[in-house]
């Protein structure tokens, strides 16, 4: 299966999936990568080649990626890798 280009429609699909099925991960992105350790709510608004846009407790936050995303598969791999690289709960 070929990867889709990172279009606005693909971004919307990724965001819907993350917000509906992985809300805790989105909150973790906000807390760790967004630097908002006290975040209580986070929604993913968009995924672009350079960064993801979140809304954290009503405030827009941009979280840059460590490289330019090439397509939907790269976005998936990158989001999973970012989550896996977080410290385990209870570990700083």
Give the topology, please.
Blueprint lengths: L7 H14 L1 H10 L9 E6 L3 E6 L2 E6 L7 H13 L8
Antiparallel strand pairs: 1-2, 2-3
CATH homolog superfamily: PNP-oxidase-like
pLDDT < 50 runs, ≥5 residues: none
Kindly name the structural category.
alpha+beta
First-last Cα distance: 38 Å
Q: What is the H-and-E element order?
A: HHEEEH
Mean pLDDT: 93
Fraction of residues in β-strands: 15-25%
- What is the CATH first-level class name? Alpha Beta
Give the second-level CATH assignment, the architecture. Alpha-Beta Barrel
For the largest beta-sheet, the strand count, sense and barrel status come to:
3 strands, antiparallel
When the domains are counted, the total is: 1
Shape: globular
* Number of continuous helical runs: 3
The total beta strand count reads: 3
Question: Care to give the gist of this entry?
Answer:
Helices cover 40% and strands 20% of the residues. The chain has helices at residues 8-21, 23-32, 72-84, and strands at 42-47, 51-56, 59-64.
């Amino acid at each position: 299966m070929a990867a889709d280009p990172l279009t606005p429609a693909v971004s919307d699909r990724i965001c819907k999936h993350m917000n509906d099925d992985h809300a805790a991960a989105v909150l973790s992105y906000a807390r760790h990568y967004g630097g908002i350790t006290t975040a209580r709510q986070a929604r993913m608004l968009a995924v672009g080649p350079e960064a993801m846009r979140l809304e954290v407790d009503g405030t827009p936050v941009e979280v840059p990626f460590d490289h330019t995303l090439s397509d939907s598969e790269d976005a998936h791999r990158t989001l999973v890798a970012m989550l896996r690289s977080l410290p385990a709960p209870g570990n700083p």
